[in-house]
Each structure stands twice: as structure tokens, then as C-alpha cells.
Design a protein that fits this description.
Elements: E1 2-8, H1 20-23, H2 28-41, E2 44-50, H3 54-64, E3 70-74, H4 83-92, E4 96-100, E5 122-125, H5 130-146
Parallel strand pairs: 1-2, 1-3, 3-4, 4-5
Helix pairs in contact: 2-5, 3-4
The structure holds 1,3,4-trihydroxy-5-OXO-cyclohexanecarboxylic acid.
Residues 11, 74, 76-77, 79, 100-102, 104, 111 line the site of 1,3,4-trihydroxy-5-OXO-cyclohexanecarboxylic acid.
């Protein structure tokens, strides 16, 4: 059994009503429920946390050190700005998969840069809520390969 933290950043609490033409009609609650049930099928215990505050996200990443086996992170707009989040991930030493609902590389140029990508196992974007499911699969494969339980 692996413990996985699904961490969502700013404005993702607005999913479902926020720019549905970009992000779809899936709510954050639906994303979280999907992660919990898909995680169960992979032998993962999924907990989730969302915050609009950079410091709260950093605290959650620090708390994951030694307590979580993996993190799925959608840092929202902090993806493109936050050296502090990047440093937190590097210091936590917990394998992390970066996710986005939208394909950030097909959008405005300022979204093409990710500070998270440099410290992530990899990045999955463009598949809506399925991006999270793929990230859980990727973590399961990574942890199995490492023989971590
Ligand atoms: C997002 C993409 C970001 O550029 C944006 O700021 C978000 C959501 C996504 O999931 O597609 O808030 O992370």
C-alpha cells in the first residue's frame, strides 16, 4: 500500500464553473473522488488537499516528506511562477508527477514554462481529469520499479 497526496493549487477549487471551455465541467470533488477510487484499484491510499495559498502548498509538500510515497501536483498558475514550490519539492524528496487538465504547451507562451517540471518525475497535461489518473498510474509504476513496498 502506498500513500499518495493529490495536491491542487490556486483556482482549482473553482473547477466545474471555471472556464469550462478550457477545463471542462468536472468539479474538484469529482477529480478527488476519481483519484481515491483509481488509487484504491492500484493499492494506493489517496489523500487530497487544495489551497489557493502558495505557503500552504509548500507546508503540505514539507509534511509529505517521510509520510507520503508520492505526490500528484497541479500547481495551477504557480507552475509558471514559483521557485519556492520548486525548492520545496526538491527538499521533500518525494517522487512527484506534475499534472494539468489543459495542454499548457498549446496555450499562451507564459504557460509553456514550468518550474515544477525540473523537479518532477514527469509531466502529464491535456487530458482533463484523466491527467490525474495517468499520474497515479505513473507513480504506481515508478514505485513498483523502485521496489518501494
Ligand atoms: C492548469 C494550467 C495553468 O496554466 C492554470 O494557471 C491553471 C490550471 C491546468 O490544470 O490546466 O490554473 O494548471
Amino acid at each position: 500500500m502506498h500513500n499518495i497526496l493529490v495536491l491542487n493549487g490556486p483556482n482549482l477549487n473553482m473547477l466545474g464553473t471555471r472556464q469550462p471551455e478550457v477545463y471542462g465541467s468536472t468539479t474538484l470533488k469529482m477529480v478527488e473522488d476519481l483519484c481515491i477510487s483509481h488509487g484504491q484499484s492500484l493499492g494506493q491510499t489517496v489523500t487530497h488537499f487544495q489551497s489557493n495559498h502558495e505557503g500552504a502548498l509548500i507546508d503540505a509538500i514539507h509534511a509529505a516528506r517521510g509520510t507520503q510515497d508520492g505526490i500528484v501536483l497541479n500547481a495551477g498558475a504557480y507552475t509558471h511562477t514559483s521557485v519556492a514550490l520548486m525548492d520545496a519539492i526538491a527538499s521533500a524528496e518525494v517522487p512527484l508527477v506534475e499534472v494539468h487538465l489543459s495542454n499548457i504547451h498549446a496555450r499562451e507562451p507564459f504557460r509553456h514554462k514550468s518550474y515544477i517540471a525540473a523537479v518532477a518525475l514527469g509531466q502529464i497535461c491535456g487530458f482533463g481529469a484523466q491527467s490525474y489518473v495517468m499520474a497515479l498510474d505513473a507513480l504506481a509504476a515508478h514505485l513498483a520499479e523502485k521496489g518501494a513496498g
